[in-house]
Q: What sequence folds into this?
């Protein structure tokens, strides 16, 4: 199927330092509450962390409902922290067949009023029949990110207030992912180490069932 | 209750900038302790207002009588101040009163 692409960027500035903005950028779980104008719900599916890594998490898979004006679209997303101040994110909207890749970067500026620039580079791939709506999508993306940025400023202000009082709450993931919640309930497992012959008589494999 | 409180030892005393006017307000008791003062039919309810997750300022939901976090939706039941979250189970409550424009918070077990 032929696809059409939209490649654009959105720039927003924050009144707060790059580290306060980064603190907020890592947190995706707040979208359903702090950004209820642009998001409806958020569900964490999987969170992965490289045990030798420096980040609080490395990858995150999630499901959310994005709100564009009066329309709600369920999306499935994947994000990876590439390095400090850079996140890559991929979201798929099944209803429209749209895939959006986001390259989110933070830069220090020389402006004392707005010391942090948030640059979002967006590549949106859509079915050809949606190509005439590219302008609408570009506008909606800009509106979406700008609203979220302004709603995030009180978050950063609060974190700064606490920091100035030497009260520290390090970033931490709030919800348990569905991966860890559900897969931890599996009862069947392989009895011997990987790579070895693991023939087990079928009658000895016990799986607990509840309804 | 009122007479018990009048004998209690005041631990924190903060001059309020404005009267409650039927709405909850947030007050820093010290540099580390921020509380939310919720007006009740009789007296006030004083609860910690720093979310134990990431420090958001907690708010009072008048409809449900719950304390909630605007960032991640953590909810504490209004009376017990307990939540269902396995890590952030409870927030603190303080005994106190507003007298002549001052918030008085009493020592625990006074």
A:
């Amino acid at each position: 199927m032929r696809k059409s692409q939209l490649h654009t960027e959105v720039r927003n500035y924050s009144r707060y330092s790059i580290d306060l903005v980064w603190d907020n950028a890592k947190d995706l779980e707040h979208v359903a509450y702090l950004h209820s104008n642009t998001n409806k719900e958020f569900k964490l599916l999987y969170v992965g962390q490289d045990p030798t890594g420096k980040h609080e998490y490395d990858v995150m898979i999630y499901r959310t409902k994005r709100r564009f004006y009066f329309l709600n679209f369920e999306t499935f997303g994947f994000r990876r922290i590439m390095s400090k101040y850079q996140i890559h994110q991929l979201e798929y909207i099944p209803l429209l067949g749209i895939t959006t890749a986001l390259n989110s970067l933070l830069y220090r500026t020389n402006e004392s009023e707005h010391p942090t620039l948030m640059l979002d580079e967006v590549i949106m791939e859509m079915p050809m029949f949606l190509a005439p709506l590219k302008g609408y999508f570009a506008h909606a993306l800009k509106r979406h990110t700008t609203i979220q940025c302004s709603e995030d400023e009180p978050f950063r202000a609060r974190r700064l207030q606490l920091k100035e009082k030497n009260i520290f709450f390090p970033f931490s993931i709030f919800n348990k992912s569905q991966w860890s919640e559900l897969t931890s309930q599996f009862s069947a497992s392989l009895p011997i180490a990987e790579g070895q012959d693991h023939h087990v008589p079928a009658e000895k494999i016990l799986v607990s069932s509840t309804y | 209750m009122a007479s018990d409180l009048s004998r209690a030892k005041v631990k924190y005393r903060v001059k309020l900038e404005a009267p409650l006017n039927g709405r909850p307000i947030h007050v820093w008791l010290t540099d580390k302790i921020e509380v939310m003062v919720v007006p009740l039919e009789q007296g006030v309810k004083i609860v910690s207002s720093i979310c134990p997750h990431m420090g958001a300022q907690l708010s009072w939901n008048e409809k449900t009588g719950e304390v909630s976090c605007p960032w991640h939706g953590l909810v504490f039941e209004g009376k017990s101040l307990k939540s269902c979250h396995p890590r952030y189970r409870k927030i603190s409550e303080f005994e106190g009163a507003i007298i002549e424009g001052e918030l008085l918070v009493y020592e625990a077990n006074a």
Remarks:
- DSSP finds one helix and ten strands in chain B.
- Chain B touches chain A through 17 residues (CB under 8 Å).
